[in-house]
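Sample intake sheet
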Amino acid sequence: MGKTGRSGAIERQDDAGESRGRLVRDALVIASYALPVGLVYGLATLQAGFSALDTIAMCLVVLAGGAQFAAVGMVKDGAPWLAIAGVTLLVNARHLLYSAALAPYLTAARRRERALMAHFLTDESFALSLAHFRRIGRLDRRGFWIASMAVTIPWTVGSTLGFLAAGALDIEGLGLDIAFPAAMAGLSLGMVSGRRDVAAALGAVAVAVPVGLVGGVSVGLIAGAVVGPLVGLAVPPGSDEESSRPETPQLAAEAGLP
Protein backbone atom coordinates (compact mmCIF):
# COMPACT_ATOMS: atom_id res chain seq x y z
CA MET A 1 0.00 0.00 0.00
CA GLY A 2 1.35 3.39 -0.96
CA LYS A 3 1.63 6.43 1.24
CA THR A 4 -1.65 7.83 0.01
CA GLY A 5 -3.41 4.51 0.66
CA ARG A 6 -2.05 4.28 4.19
CA SER A 7 -3.02 7.85 5.03
CA GLY A 8 -6.51 7.24 3.65
CA ALA A 9 -6.93 4.14 5.80
CA ILE A 10 -5.74 6.02 8.89
CA GLU A 11 -8.15 8.85 8.17
CA ARG A 12 -11.02 6.39 7.81
CA GLN A 13 -10.05 4.73 11.09
CA ASP A 14 -10.04 8.15 12.79
CA ASP A 15 -13.50 8.86 11.39
CA ALA A 16 -14.72 5.49 12.66
CA GLY A 17 -13.23 6.13 16.09
CA GLU A 18 -14.91 9.52 16.33
CA SER A 19 -18.22 8.02 15.24
CA ARG A 20 -17.84 5.22 17.77
CA GLY A 21 -17.37 7.81 20.48
CA ARG A 22 -20.65 9.44 19.50
CA LEU A 23 -22.25 6.00 19.33
CA VAL A 24 -21.13 5.21 22.88
CA ARG A 25 -22.53 8.49 24.18
CA ASP A 26 -25.86 7.86 22.49
CA ALA A 27 -25.85 4.25 23.70
CA LEU A 28 -25.42 5.37 27.29
CA VAL A 29 -28.53 7.51 26.94
CA ILE A 30 -30.42 4.49 25.59
CA ALA A 31 -29.15 2.32 28.46
CA SER A 32 -30.25 4.91 31.00
CA TYR A 33 -33.89 4.43 30.06
CA ALA A 34 -33.72 0.74 29.07
CA LEU A 35 -33.09 -0.11 32.72
CA PRO A 36 -36.17 1.61 34.22
CA VAL A 37 -38.38 0.47 31.35
CA GLY A 38 -37.16 -3.06 31.99
CA LEU A 39 -38.11 -2.52 35.60
CA VAL A 40 -41.68 -1.79 34.52
CA TYR A 41 -41.68 -4.87 32.32
CA GLY A 42 -40.49 -7.04 35.20
CA LEU A 43 -43.34 -5.78 37.35
CA ALA A 44 -45.79 -6.55 34.55
CA THR A 45 -44.54 -10.11 34.13
CA LEU A 46 -45.16 -10.90 37.80
CA GLN A 47 -48.71 -9.57 37.49
CA ALA A 48 -49.19 -11.83 34.47
CA GLY A 49 -48.09 -14.90 36.45
CA PHE A 50 -44.61 -15.28 34.98
CA SER A 51 -41.76 -16.84 36.93
CA ALA A 52 -38.35 -15.20 37.26
CA LEU A 53 -36.96 -17.66 34.73
CA ASP A 54 -39.80 -16.84 32.32
CA THR A 55 -39.03 -13.13 32.62
CA ILE A 56 -35.30 -13.52 32.00
CA ALA A 57 -35.78 -16.04 29.18
CA MET A 58 -38.25 -13.79 27.39
CA CYS A 59 -35.79 -10.90 27.53
CA LEU A 60 -32.97 -12.98 26.07
CA VAL A 61 -34.96 -15.08 23.60
CA VAL A 62 -37.60 -12.62 22.39
CA LEU A 63 -35.70 -9.37 23.05
CA ALA A 64 -38.37 -7.06 21.64
CA GLY A 65 -39.75 -4.54 24.13
CA GLY A 66 -43.00 -3.66 22.36
CA ALA A 67 -43.81 -7.28 21.53
CA GLN A 68 -42.95 -8.38 25.06
CA PHE A 69 -45.26 -5.80 26.62
CA ALA A 70 -48.05 -6.78 24.21
CA ALA A 71 -47.55 -10.49 24.93
CA VAL A 72 -47.53 -10.00 28.71
CA GLY A 73 -50.73 -7.97 28.57
CA MET A 74 -52.45 -10.63 26.48
CA VAL A 75 -51.23 -13.42 28.76
CA LYS A 76 -52.61 -11.53 31.75
CA ASP A 77 -55.97 -11.20 29.97
CA GLY A 78 -56.03 -14.92 29.17
CA ALA A 79 -55.74 -14.57 25.39
CA PRO A 80 -55.11 -17.76 23.35
CA TRP A 81 -51.52 -18.46 22.39
CA LEU A 82 -52.28 -18.31 18.68
CA ALA A 83 -53.57 -14.75 19.07
CA ILE A 84 -50.51 -13.79 21.13
CA ALA A 85 -48.19 -15.21 18.48
CA GLY A 86 -50.07 -13.35 15.74
CA VAL A 87 -49.97 -9.98 17.51
CA THR A 88 -46.29 -10.23 18.40
CA LEU A 89 -45.51 -11.23 14.82
CA LEU A 90 -47.26 -8.12 13.53
CA VAL A 91 -45.57 -5.90 16.12
CA ASN A 92 -42.17 -7.22 15.05
CA ALA A 93 -42.88 -7.02 11.31
CA ARG A 94 -41.06 -3.68 11.24
CA HIS A 95 -37.81 -5.63 11.56
CA LEU A 96 -38.18 -6.58 7.92
CA LEU A 97 -37.74 -2.91 7.08
CA TYR A 98 -34.83 -2.64 9.51
CA SER A 99 -33.04 -5.55 7.87
CA ALA A 100 -33.57 -4.05 4.41
CA ALA A 101 -31.97 -0.79 5.56
CA LEU A 102 -28.96 -2.57 7.08
CA ALA A 103 -28.51 -5.14 4.30
CA PRO A 104 -26.19 -3.01 2.10
CA TYR A 105 -23.71 -2.78 4.99
CA LEU A 106 -23.75 -6.52 5.76
CA THR A 107 -22.79 -7.95 2.39
CA ALA A 108 -19.39 -9.03 3.71
CA ALA A 109 -20.82 -10.71 6.84
CA ARG A 110 -21.39 -14.45 6.86
CA ARG A 111 -24.90 -15.86 7.10
CA ARG A 112 -24.39 -17.12 10.66
CA GLU A 113 -23.09 -13.72 11.73
CA ARG A 114 -26.06 -11.96 10.14
CA ALA A 115 -28.44 -14.36 11.89
CA LEU A 116 -26.84 -13.62 15.26
CA MET A 117 -26.96 -9.88 14.63
CA ALA A 118 -30.61 -10.18 13.59
CA HIS A 119 -31.48 -11.73 16.95
CA PHE A 120 -30.09 -8.70 18.80
CA LEU A 121 -31.66 -6.17 16.43
CA THR A 122 -34.06 -3.87 18.29
CA ASP A 123 -35.51 -0.43 17.59
CA GLU A 124 -32.70 1.18 19.55
CA SER A 125 -29.81 -0.90 18.21
CA PHE A 126 -31.09 -0.33 14.68
CA ALA A 127 -31.27 3.44 15.12
CA LEU A 128 -27.83 3.64 16.73
CA SER A 129 -26.02 1.29 14.37
CA LEU A 130 -27.59 2.60 11.16
CA ALA A 131 -26.69 6.17 12.07
CA HIS A 132 -23.14 5.00 12.85
CA PHE A 133 -22.82 3.06 9.58
CA ARG A 134 -24.07 6.04 7.61
CA ARG A 135 -21.58 8.35 9.27
CA ILE A 136 -18.61 6.16 8.36
CA GLY A 137 -20.07 4.68 5.17
CA ARG A 138 -19.34 1.05 6.05
CA LEU A 139 -20.05 -1.84 8.40
CA ASP A 140 -18.51 -1.66 11.87
CA ARG A 141 -19.13 -4.87 13.78
CA ARG A 142 -17.85 -3.47 17.05
CA GLY A 143 -20.18 -0.50 16.73
CA PHE A 144 -23.17 -2.78 16.15
CA TRP A 145 -22.45 -4.83 19.26
CA ILE A 146 -21.96 -1.71 21.35
CA ALA A 147 -25.41 -0.56 20.24
CA SER A 148 -26.96 -3.99 20.87
CA MET A 149 -25.50 -4.57 24.32
CA ALA A 150 -26.51 -1.06 25.38
CA VAL A 151 -30.08 -2.35 25.16
CA THR A 152 -29.82 -6.06 25.93
CA ILE A 153 -27.90 -5.81 29.21
CA PRO A 154 -29.84 -3.04 31.00
CA TRP A 155 -33.15 -4.35 29.64
CA THR A 156 -32.52 -7.83 31.05
CA VAL A 157 -31.10 -6.56 34.34
CA GLY A 158 -33.94 -4.08 34.78
CA SER A 159 -36.57 -6.72 34.03
CA THR A 160 -35.06 -9.08 36.57
CA LEU A 161 -34.89 -6.40 39.25
CA GLY A 162 -38.43 -5.32 38.46
CA PHE A 163 -39.71 -8.85 38.91
CA LEU A 164 -37.86 -9.28 42.19
CA ALA A 165 -39.02 -5.90 43.50
CA ALA A 166 -42.62 -6.27 42.30
CA GLY A 167 -45.12 -4.68 44.63
CA ALA A 168 -42.59 -2.29 46.14
CA LEU A 169 -43.13 0.43 43.53
CA ASP A 170 -46.21 2.38 42.47
CA ILE A 171 -45.90 2.31 38.67
CA GLU A 172 -48.55 4.92 37.91
CA GLY A 173 -47.59 7.13 40.84
CA LEU A 174 -43.97 7.28 39.69
CA GLY A 175 -44.92 7.78 36.07
CA LEU A 176 -43.00 4.70 34.95
CA ASP A 177 -45.93 3.55 32.84
CA ILE A 178 -45.14 6.23 30.24
CA ALA A 179 -41.36 5.77 30.24
CA PHE A 180 -41.32 3.37 27.30
CA PRO A 181 -43.49 5.36 24.85
CA ALA A 182 -41.87 8.65 25.89
CA ALA A 183 -38.35 7.33 25.34
CA MET A 184 -39.24 5.81 21.99
CA ALA A 185 -40.89 9.06 20.90
CA GLY A 186 -37.72 10.98 21.76
CA LEU A 187 -35.56 8.52 19.84
CA SER A 188 -37.90 8.66 16.83
CA LEU A 189 -37.78 12.47 16.73
CA GLY A 190 -34.00 12.27 16.47
CA MET A 191 -34.35 10.07 13.37
CA VAL A 192 -36.68 12.48 11.50
CA SER A 193 -34.56 14.16 8.85
CA GLY A 194 -36.75 14.79 5.80
CA ARG A 195 -40.26 15.21 4.45
CA ARG A 196 -40.76 11.44 4.11
CA ASP A 197 -39.84 10.89 7.76
CA VAL A 198 -42.21 13.64 8.87
CA ALA A 199 -45.00 12.25 6.71
CA ALA A 200 -44.46 8.73 8.07
CA ALA A 201 -44.47 9.97 11.67
CA LEU A 202 -47.61 12.07 11.21
CA GLY A 203 -49.35 9.28 9.33
CA ALA A 204 -48.54 6.76 12.06
CA VAL A 205 -49.84 9.07 14.80
CA ALA A 206 -52.97 9.99 12.84
CA VAL A 207 -53.86 6.31 12.52
CA ALA A 208 -52.55 4.92 15.82
CA VAL A 209 -54.38 7.36 18.10
CA PRO A 210 -57.99 6.87 16.89
CA VAL A 211 -57.51 3.14 16.27
CA GLY A 212 -55.94 2.77 19.71
CA LEU A 213 -58.86 4.55 21.37
CA VAL A 214 -61.32 2.19 19.71
CA GLY A 215 -59.46 -1.12 19.54
CA GLY A 216 -56.82 -0.82 22.24
CA VAL A 217 -53.20 0.32 22.48
CA SER A 218 -51.69 -2.78 20.84
CA VAL A 219 -54.01 -2.58 17.84
CA GLY A 220 -53.32 1.14 17.48
CA LEU A 221 -49.57 0.61 17.53
CA ILE A 222 -49.80 -2.09 14.89
CA ALA A 223 -52.00 0.06 12.65
CA GLY A 224 -49.67 3.03 12.99
CA ALA A 225 -46.59 0.91 12.32
CA VAL A 226 -48.15 -0.44 9.11
CA VAL A 227 -49.70 2.74 7.73
CA GLY A 228 -46.96 5.21 8.73
CA PRO A 229 -44.22 3.83 6.45
CA LEU A 230 -46.70 3.57 3.57
CA VAL A 231 -47.55 7.25 3.95
CA GLY A 232 -43.85 8.11 3.98
CA LEU A 233 -43.21 6.10 0.81
CA ALA A 234 -46.10 7.86 -0.93
CA VAL A 235 -44.43 11.25 -0.40
CA PRO A 236 -41.73 12.16 -2.95
CA PRO A 237 -38.31 12.71 -1.33
CA GLY A 238 -36.79 16.16 -1.20
CA SER A 239 -33.79 16.97 -3.37
CA ASP A 240 -31.58 17.34 -0.32
CA GLU A 241 -32.76 14.23 1.54
CA GLU A 242 -30.24 11.52 2.22
CA SER A 243 -32.75 8.87 1.24
CA SER A 244 -32.87 10.26 -2.30
CA ARG A 245 -29.20 9.47 -2.87
CA PRO A 246 -28.06 5.86 -3.23
CA GLU A 247 -25.65 4.72 -0.54
CA THR A 248 -22.43 2.92 -1.36
CA PRO A 249 -21.23 1.44 1.92
CA GLN A 250 -17.58 0.46 2.07
CA LEU A 251 -16.48 -2.90 3.36
CA ALA A 252 -14.89 -2.86 6.80
CA ALA A 253 -11.87 -4.80 5.56
CA GLU A 254 -11.12 -2.09 3.00
CA ALA A 255 -11.21 0.52 5.73
CA GLY A 256 -8.89 -1.35 8.06
CA LEU A 257 -11.60 -1.95 10.67
CA PRO A 258 -11.81 -5.12 12.79
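Comment: The CA atoms of residues 71 and 84 lie 6 Å apart. The first helix runs from residue 3 to 47.
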